[in-house]
Amino acid sequence: MTSTPMTKTRHERRAIGAMLTGLGLTVLATVLPYVDRATTHLLADHIRAGYPTYTQARVESAVTTYLVLLSVVGALGVIAWLWTTWAVKAGKRWARPVATVMFVVATGAGLTGLLTTDTSGETGLPPALGWAGMAPCAAALLAVTLLWRREKQ
Question: Which of 3, 46, 98, 128 has the largest count of CB atoms under 10 Å?
Answer without folding.
Answer: 46
